[in-house]
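Structure (tokenized):
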């Protein structure tokens, strides 16, 4: 679709500790390439001294200032839901929103984390054995990734979380959506990894501000593949250790790009160039 040069879009990202996010430059560069005026602002609640309680005020302010869309990240992906007028099927199933379109006085919530991880996995590990997979993390991003994994043909998903109730709740919702026995809360990580073909990591561990490993290194075997959602740094300690053991790995960059591709489409109605956005992401370095 060709774009009128007079079109302009004001978008933003609401989250805590988001100064290192590559989402703003990805969106703005694609806007430039499309020939539109595109401004994407970081609304960092950590710097602003705001909490979840301030989210209603932030959404109202964005509407008043003419924002056409907002991406939502940690820790607001579930807290934003009661503030919206409408949810996409994915967002409703996941009970998590990372993309809000503001249009004609209405707030419409989407989840592009799910489609973003699904496309990254499809491209990056197309022939990976996926009969049994362990996933670490059952939060907002974890729910999206788990749905995508089952959509991509994972036979059984063991879900582990620091909050066992959250893992059990997600596993139950996955069984409701995909069929009995497709998911279960993981109570014995070592046993699950012995059975698993691969590992999906969906917690903040490994980010610059949360360094370290999300599981004991000795549980990784060369036959495992490892898919990461953290993308800053692009090579986490988990991926370094896994690669050293001979595991196939998938970094979080693809999910970051493809969720942005889908969000750009929702915000603008324009068709983004995914390959161009991948190249731009790669040019930003590790």
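Design, position by position:
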């Amino acid at each position: 679709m060709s774009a009128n040069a007079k079109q302009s879009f004001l978008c933003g990202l609401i989250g805590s500790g988001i100064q290192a996010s590559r989402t703003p430059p990805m969106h703005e560069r694609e806007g430039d390439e499309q020939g539109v005026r595109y401004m994407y602002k970081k609304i960092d609640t950590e710097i602003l001294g705001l909490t979840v309680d301030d989210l209603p005020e932030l959404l109202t302010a964005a509407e008043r200032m003419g924002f056409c869309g907002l991406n939502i990240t940690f820790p607001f992906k579930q807290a934003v839901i009661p503030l919206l007028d409408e949810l996409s099927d994915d967002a409703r199933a996941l009970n998590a929103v990372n993309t809000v379109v503001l249009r004609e006085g209405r707030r419409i919530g989407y989840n592009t984390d799910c489609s973003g991880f699904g496309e990254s996995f499809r491209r990056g590990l197309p022939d990976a054995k996926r009969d049994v997979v362990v996933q670490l993390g059952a939060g907002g991003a974890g729910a999206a990734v788990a749905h995508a994994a089952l959509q991509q043909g994972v036979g059984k998903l063991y879900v582990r979380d620091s909050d066992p109730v959250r893992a059990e709740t997600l596993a139950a919702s996955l069984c409701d959506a995909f069929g009995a026995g497709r998911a279960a809360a993981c109570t014995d990580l070592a046993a699950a990894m012995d059975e698993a073909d691969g590992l999906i990591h969906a917690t903040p561990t490994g980010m610059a501000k949360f360094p370290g490993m999300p599981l004991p290194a000795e549980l990784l075997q060369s036959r495992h593949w490892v898919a990461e959602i953290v993308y800053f740094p692009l090579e986490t300690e988990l991926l370094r250790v896994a690669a050293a053991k001979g595991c196939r790995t998938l970094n979080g960059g693809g999910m970051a790009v493809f969720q942005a591709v889908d969000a750009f489409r929702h915000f603008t109605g324009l068709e983004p160039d995914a390959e161009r956005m991948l190249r731009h992401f790669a040019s930003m370095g590790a």
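Reviewer-requested clarification: The mean pLDDT is 95. The two ends are 32 Å apart (CA to CA).
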